[in-house]
Design brief:
Helix 3 packs across helix 5, helix 4 runs antiparallel to helix 5 and helix 9 runs antiparallel to helix 10. The protein is globular. The chain is α+β, with helices and mostly antiparallel strands. The protein is 43% helix and 21% strand.
């Protein structure tokens, strides 16, 4: 089995919770830990079959799993109600879409399709991956389940790539969300990964050996205080408009379209798809180049070159992709970017993180400026808005105790 480096106090607390909620037992317990992730490069390129660079981070979903000799899975996550799932039903259930119960049932079903024999267990979970922060708490939970069930039922023999693909399938088929693969792949594999999504059925990932802290920088993510509840249409418009351009050229995703074809036919794209769709397509092509160039800089140890390109990427997201603000009276993310630039004074780099339209911004901050940066951003957006993160190099892990 793999390492699962969790501090003893967390393990003791989870053990106590497991016993108090489900009773004592002579059965061994399985410790599973799965990190969250941050998007380092590749803003809105994955759904178009493009490239991204993502890194697992040092915030985790941590759980204890214990067989219970029944055909029921009982799962209790701190801060949430008990979820119980009968293994007698391993098909999607009407009304379960969008629930934790759907993800638990779905993962058991997907493992059963691989020939594993599901059996009941009790599980207690805790998480310090901030929910709704763009750090993929949902993907960490899914991969946590995949590794835990695989270890309980087969000894943990499935490759990490399979765990990621099953977690994506679980979210799509059982949870009902048509997600990509970047999040699940990042947290399953760990480290910094350069990934391609040209083939939607396969996981193509190459690790990048780079240490931001050793290069003198911290990764800081700032929650800007803007929710996403009323922005579903804004998010959905990005892939829809990019794919409108692709369809204009007889394709389904922009990765299948030549940039030169688009730039030679700008007038037709503007007329049939609109100006914003054209600009978002241009962002895709630019960001694809910038991802490749940033990967090369990290592989070569050139952090200053990486940061220069990161700033160009941030500008492209704001000007062409247009996912920083909806341009109304409230422009939380744009204010956060402006404040971050004021504090950094052209040192480091800052850009919108993930989906955009609020959520979080990401900054690469010189180590000697971290305290001042956090203090300044928290003063603007609230105590605790800023989080300082390091890369997790292990990915999902499991260990019998």
């Amino acid at each position: 089995m793999e390492s699962a480096g969790v501090d003893s106090r967390t393990v003791a607390r989870l053990r106590e919770r497991l016993s108090s909620e489900f009773g004592s037992s002579d059965e061994r317990v399985l410790l599973v830990r799965c990190p969250g992730r941050t998007e380092i490069a590749g803003n809105h390129t994955d759904h178009e079959g493009g490239h991204v660079i993502a890194g697992a981070i040092d915030r985790y979903v941590t759980g204890l799993f214990r067989p219970n000799g029944t055909k029921t899975i009982n799962l209790l996550s701190e801060g949430y109600d008990l979820v119980s799932v009968s293994l007698d039903v391993l098909e999607p259930v009407a009304g379960e879409h969008g629930t934790t119960r759907a993800l638990v049932r779905g993962m058991a079903a997907l493992l059963a399709r691989k020939g594993l024999v599901p059996a009941g267990f009790d599980c207690v979970l805790t998480s310090d991956v901030p929910v709704g922060s763009g750090l993929s708490s949902s993907a960490a939970f899914e991969v946590e389940l995949a590794r835990g069930m695989d270890a309980l039922w087969s000894g943990g023999n499935l490759p990490r790539e399979d765990l990621a693909l099953m977690s994506q399938a679980d979210e799509r088929e059982f949870f009902g969300k048509p997600c990509g693969l970047m999040d699940q792949a990042s947290v399953a594999l760990g480290g910094i990964q350069h990934m391609s999504f040209a083939d939607p059925t396969a996981l193509v990932a190459n690790p990048i050996d780079f240490d931001f802290a050793a290069a003198g920088y911290a990764i800081v993510l700032v929650a800007v205080g803007a929710g996403h509840e009323n922005l579903i249409d804004e998010y959905a418009a990005i892939p829809r408009e990019m794919q409108d351009v692709a369809r204009l050229f007889g394709r389904t995703r922009l990765c299948e379209v030549s940039e030169s074809d688009v730039t030679r036919d700008v007038a037709r794209v503007r007329e049939e798809c609109g100006d914003r769709a054209l600009l978002r397509a241009l962002h895709f092509f630019r960001e694809e180049r910038l991802v490749e160039e940033r990967a090369a800089r990290l592989e070569g140890g050139d952090v200053e070159g990486f940061l220069r390109l990161e700033r160009l990427s941030g500008a492209s997201s704001a000007m062409y992709l247009q996912n920083v603000s909806t341009w109304g009276r409230e422009q939380d993310a744009m204010v956060a970017l402006g404040m971050a630039d004021e504090i950094l004074l052209e040192r480091g780099a800052v850009r919108i993180h993930g989906g955009g339209f609020g959520g979080t911004i990401q900054a690469f901050v010189p180590l000697d400026m971290v305290d001042d940066f956090v203090r300044g951003m928290d003063a603007a957006f609230g105590q605790g808005a800023s989080g300082v993160y390091s890369i997790d190099h292990e990915g999902v892990s499991a260990l019998w105790l």
